[in-house]
User: Fold this.
Amino acid sequence: MPRHLPSLPHHALVLVVLLLLAAPRAWAGGGFDDAALVARLLPSVVAIDTTTLPSAEPGKPKPPPVIDHASGFVIDSSGVILTSGHVADGKGAIRVVLQDGTVLAARVLFRAPVDLAMLKVEAGRLLPAVQWGDSDRLRPGDGVVAIGNPLGIGISVSAGIVSALGRDIHATPFDDFIQTDAALNKGNSGGPLFNLKGEVIGVATGLITPKGVSGSIGLGLAIPGNDAQFMVDSFNRFGRVRSGWLGAQVAAVTPGIADSLELPQQHGAVVTGVLPGGPAAKAGLQVGDVILRAGSQAVTGPHMLARRFATATVGDSLHLTLLRAATPAAVDVVVGEAPEPAGKAAAPPTIKPRPDLGLSLAPLDAAARRQYGIPATLHGVLVAAVAPDSVAAEHGLAAGDVIARTQWSAVERPEDVEAGIESARGTGRGHVMLAVQGPSGARLLALPLAGG
Assistant:
């Protein structure tokens, strides 16, 4: 079954076995130099730790912090890092370790609908960023290099080939994983998969193992680099992922459907429902239409069609070639924006201005107001999560509270709260004052600042 790549506990015993292998002939020829390539790539790859404070049971000693490990890589020299989505689950403080050993606190910029997230660190200098390759050009057998932080032991390198393309584990409409035999283990999640030009063509996300086996058996999975770029570009343009949408239900063309619709062959995707007012309805798509091509790509089935629309640019026109009543036809669909599933509004991006306070903050948007029943007249910043046994928890803060002011200054963004905390610390105060509104009413809290 597919597994994400969380790390083993610190106390796990790691047995290191050194294997001396001959370099594959295709890699050794033509002047290719493994060590020179890796040396060029290493400065862009980072190790990531997340620290969570578990809650203590009544009457029992406080348990030690839980530290998980992951990997990431610099995608913008200003300090933007791409990593695994579960790193940004809001449950713990995030620490990034650069190749030179520099340790930096990270805040979450964005968590994608797939297992990807963007972090931001303040390094005080430009960081070396990766170059992207074109994952659509990959072929089975192409050589790849994986760099990451397996088991939290430190940045490590493994190599292999593309074993297969288009693996679908039915997790999201974007599933189209690269399968590789390069060693991926717990802690590699979020690390880059490079081609032999040193370009990122994938992001490590999981591995497939038999039941009871947790390590690599040569069945690693990576999100295609082009999908990762789509997510990053969408966030940079719109502040979220704008997934494309057809607005129709489609199904596989079974032998029975092919026979009943008098289709010459069994391929494509058959329309089983059209949502009123959606892109498909506006384009004139009908139940029973069999979609054969989307743009220049042959439609191999429902998943391929859903993925084609999910990764299309909202507002673009996509030409669909189809059969209608066994007669060739075509429609042009203006790609719509996928609506949020009812009851599953996307969580707003969170940042952690002060992990020592145990606070995770988020913008107070419409989804948050619906979730917590916050009136439109109340303005401020949402407390998205509070770590158990933290300073914030001890002073009564809880998820769903709204911070309206810090040090008497009104706040509208998580960054405003961060600035208020920094201001209080900069003036030598031992506490920061927060004006908080919650289910129990309005109150003022003075949170102690570590080292204040």
